[in-house]
């Protein structure tokens, strides 16, 4: 269970990598939102496989169909179900691993937990499921746009290669200008070349996606357990391959002194602002109106094009050989997923905050 | 709202720093657990203020009273309410900040969100609330102990000072041997001296707490959204002053290649084990039976004994002077809080996993 | 929002009467259940329109498709999504009511709440949505069958015509022998004739469905708020057109004295039984092992083939004329819906009860 | 588990009849509500034992203490914890039933479910727990009052004695004028005499409480599963001793024809009203602005002052003799409980409805 996320804007995803379809039901989408289907599709395109030489070469068009909840182009306040049919299912690619436990994959844990698993392409544990999140996140973005809230993400690190610029020093409108989705042009080409080399060597590499949320009103977040960053962290850690989350000063903040870390509060005309923003736009779990920014660490993809020793379901020693079409580095395609989960989180908090007063 | 945590083992905390009491109701504690009150008290002692020279000198005995749910020394399956009266309330210490917005505190966000706040000692946003979590966590630990699951945490970094040893290289039974709660004796004294210096300079410093969960059976965690590490991360990020969470290889994993990062699966007698454990005991969001380990980054305490510029509720520029009795570094007292939230999370997943099969 | 039901076996339905499809996602179906698709279809047939002369003559085949969560004929523990395409959409039948508020329909309240509504066939408020519940309920029944728990329902009253027999005096295997689904043959024909007359007069009539759950183990139900009968009542009251719910002695019990109402506890061989069962198989909100029985009152269908005065969206006085194809009495088709919601409720409590002990 | 009720205005109760205390935490009480402690106490007085000759003669002052969430007389938006100490605990009254299973009590089911129970006074299954609900309900009433919503309840039936008047024909301000809480003076005295006779005979009797909610705006209720009446029904069925719930036309509606049952919609000045209100103020699960009214059936109290045969925990045949101080009829004291649960339900829906639009 636990295939739902959110309290008032609640998504429930379903589907396996090589089953008939994946999809999502969005319950609690506010009524009256103009549903821009082209935008939803464009978000799916940013995530879909086969979009460039540094992603997997699988071809999934990832066309979605809205089954409910939209009438004459607007959300009606009833559940919006969206389905994406699986079309490029080369299930036979997986026959050889039906009983294998691939290293650092979920084969062993799913088999042990459930006693059964759809082994084709990772089944439910496949990152293909995140397409459903991107579709739901696109709805959230459409709603947030009406509120003046924008969610953006970009690749800030691939392996050891990272941009030295902060998000403020970058022009995030350039993120889509290159296939690695790093708006720092001085490092993007290096990242692409590096990933391409990794791919050719049959290996994979990890990376970091940085997210930025702007335009958030003061007051979002529900202490003490659903602090804005706590649920945002859960949203990110729930994405496949994520190993860490930090916001504001993050792990660097652990090294700092309070006299340097504190964000001095001051007036900027009529508005209350902080001079610095090591807090990452959140105080006491509640947004303070400054930018919310965070980093999400992704491990290297577990499927490599090399032979690895392992064990199968019967406890026999086996050799697992990488086959199929896989990403050498997941972060470029993870950018829209990070944005989607952030958008869903923020919209939910926006709606929750409505109940703070009568 | 959102003062509850957990699905089946669910805690709800209440209380402000300088109100009458803080407390917690634990709903869903399994029946028949022997409730060792001395153990609960000992856990509270580990968190309480005034325990050493490197913590705040406030004196709160943090005595708790069980109001319900325990009969003849055992849990009955009904809600266990525990109350801790506030006794060392020097509320007048706070009169001077009634209308102040202290830098990097939650004064501004609480005031803006709720339109009212109990300003005394931070009110609900005070870390005093975490005593309630420690009491609830002690119950979870008592239950987990019956299952052979142990949760431990320790200070691994204070400012720039950090142990170079992994948790496997340390003897975690030594954590309580020193007041900074670092089991690496070679660095613990330095940390203590460093914090003492920080305190004398009227400043504060951040740090990192490392958590380790051993004895977890295979199968805990509920993909896709309640992956074990996603909810564990939310549990940690919900603790006051936390800025980041990573598990297994964490942020380092983002730099690695798959060929190095993958944990080779092998047989160890009858058992399936992984040779390395960069996965941190979790695959696909489900425990694989290996140790679960993670890092939690804490920012420096925001209250410093220095003058800082700020703004008050009326928008006037003010000088905030540090008063009261505060911690120069929060991590030594955070150790039992990290353990408590981890224990609550794991017990909840243990119970949830029961419904995987008929 | 609130299109989900259940805690651990959780269903989320979607879809409008005249949209593309209706459907359901079942999250938390235990793994390893044999999914008998023919059985699911047969349950849908019991609910579908056009099945007899006393139901609406709309023709919807109500064929379902499983999109996920089933592998090689068994549930995998991942979400099971089922979709039923809408095929007999005569949306033009509804053009004339696009702006009308039909008496005792949800037109007015949906319009006022959401500011927009899919008026075709009632949209989301249509009882067509219950087909999704029947599909999910069929899964629950398949699981309960493995546990020896059976859920049955039948029509016990239509208008003033009611069976004088208790459920124990009836052979519930005969429920499907007649089109009104009343196992009391002495009254079933009268009910059918009565409904047929009602239909011819352009009117509609209410009725009562009685439910019986047998084989329930002791211990299901979660006091104090999720008492077995409280959630069972919510499950029933959530079905379209339901006006009342009672279990055990029900409203009659309000007239009784304790000395007559108390169920004497006695031994029956090794088993503890009650001599009478006015408690309806539930004590303190927890099943006691006796049969659980309950009544569900349905109002007459609001759509009648007569002219009625009303108001439209612009506040103008209008005449609403009954058109389309509607049921003269909803209870025969409600029988499988009552069973489905009961099965979902009981299975959920079965899974919840697993966490009572370590 | 399941000791919480509500989504955004969420209460969690705790406590046993003869433990140290009972209490409640209210999470999500809107900020800025003036907390009238005298009003809360007056509501508790309406429920407390010993208030008249027709209630139990136990003496519990039911004084409450607010531990948190209120500052300078106003709610702060943080959890409000309230504790009521148990003072009149004559636990020795119960020593004789420590191992007994009293007929139609929860002794057997609690013992079987949890394997342990606090047998004193029914422990958690005692209706004493409802005092906590009344305290929480008083908070909800204070909030609803600001919105112009009023919740009232009264005794409409005791045994066979019932008022023939509808709630519209009664002056509900007279409910508190007599000890049976029936505003129909022509029947109230008879009810009192009847209950007194029942008491003298060592017996008990059931009854019906009618509830009325006025001033509700259009739009409350969350279809399809949290229809206003579905959750209201669950709220009522969760009260001790309740056997049935109906709203609007209720079980009578099952006998009616659509042509009589439909509520014609018409204009009343600028407002849209229904001529009749058999719908009970709810259409499609959403309030339509008319009065919401409902009946709640209570069984006779199970504790009678007569000998009854039963079984004990060891399976031995025993005689249970009624001792202690018990109510001959529960409905007079149930009136404030019904009101409390209704107020909590409506306030929660009011807050939930805020998220329908951006």
Give a quick summary of the entry.
Chains A, B, C, D: It is an enzyme of class 4 (lyase). With 358 residues, chain A is α+β, with helices and mostly antiparallel strands.
Please describe what this structure looks like.
The structure is a homotetramer of 358-residue chains. Chain A has a single domain, classed as 4-Layer Sandwich (Chorismate synthase, AroC fold), CATH 3.60.150. The first copy, chain A, has 8 helices and 19 strands. In chain A, strand 15 (282-283) and strand 16 form a beta hairpin. In chain A, 26% of the residues lie in helices and 24% in strands. Chain A has helices spanning 37-47, 107-114, 130-147, 185-200, 228-237, 250-253, 258-261, 331-353, and strands spanning 4-5, 10-15, 21-27, 64-66, 70-71, 74-75, 80-85, 100-101, 150-158, 161-162, 207-214, 242-247, 265-268, 271-274, 282-283, 286-287, 292-298, 307-312, 317-321. In chain A, 69% of the residues are buried. The radius of gyration of chain A is 21 Å and the shape is globular. Chain A is of the alpha+beta class and 358 residues long. Chain A starts with a strand and ends in a 5-residue tail after the last helix. Strand 12 of chain C pairs antiparallel with strand 12 (242-247) of chain D.
């Amino acid at each position: 269970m636990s295939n739902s996320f959110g309290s008032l804007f609640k998504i429930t995803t379903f589907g396996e990598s090589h089953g008939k379809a994946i999809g999502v039901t969005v319950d609690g989408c506010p009524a009256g939102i103009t549903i821009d289907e082209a935008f939803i599709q464009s978000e799916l395109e940013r995530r879909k496989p086969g979009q460039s030489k540094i992603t997997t070469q699988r071809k999934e068009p990832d066309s979605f169909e809205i089954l409910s909840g939209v009438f004459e182009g607007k959300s009606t306040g009833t559940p919006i179900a969206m389905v994406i049919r699986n079309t490029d299912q080369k299930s036979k690619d997986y026959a050889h691993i039906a009983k294998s436990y691939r290293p650092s994959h979920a084969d062993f844990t799913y088999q042990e937990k459930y006693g059964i698993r759809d082994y084709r392409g990772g089944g439910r544990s496949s990152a293909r499921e995140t397409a459903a999140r991107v579709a739901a996140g696109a709805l959230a973005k459409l709603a947030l746009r009406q509120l003046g809230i924008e969610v953006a993400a970009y690749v800030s690190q691939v392996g050891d290669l990272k941009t030295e610029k902060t998000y403020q020093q970058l022009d995030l409108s350039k993120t889509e200008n290159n296939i690695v989705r790093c708006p720092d042009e001085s490092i993007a080409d290096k990242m692409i070349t590096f990933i391409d080399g990794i791919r050719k060597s049959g290996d994979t590499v990890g990376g970091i996606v940085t997210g930025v949320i702007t335009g958030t009103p003061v007051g979002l977040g529900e202490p003490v357990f659903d602090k804005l960053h706590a649920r945002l962290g859960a949203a990110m850690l729930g994405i496949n391959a994520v190993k860490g989350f930090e916001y504001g000063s993050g792990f660097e903040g652990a090294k700092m002194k309070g006299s340097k870390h504190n964000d001095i509060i001051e007036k900027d005309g009529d508005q209350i602002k902080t001079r610095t923003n090591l807090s990452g736009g959140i105080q006491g779990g509640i947004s303070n109106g400054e930018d919310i920014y965070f980093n999400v660490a992704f491990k290297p993809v577990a499927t490599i094009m090399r032979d690895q020793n392992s064990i199968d379901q019967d406890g026999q020693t086996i050799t697992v050989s990488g086959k199929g079409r896989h990403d050498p580095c997941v972060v470029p395609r993870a950018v829209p997923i990070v944005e989607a989960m952030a958008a869903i989180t923020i919209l939910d908090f926006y709606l929750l905050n409505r109940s703070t007063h009568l």
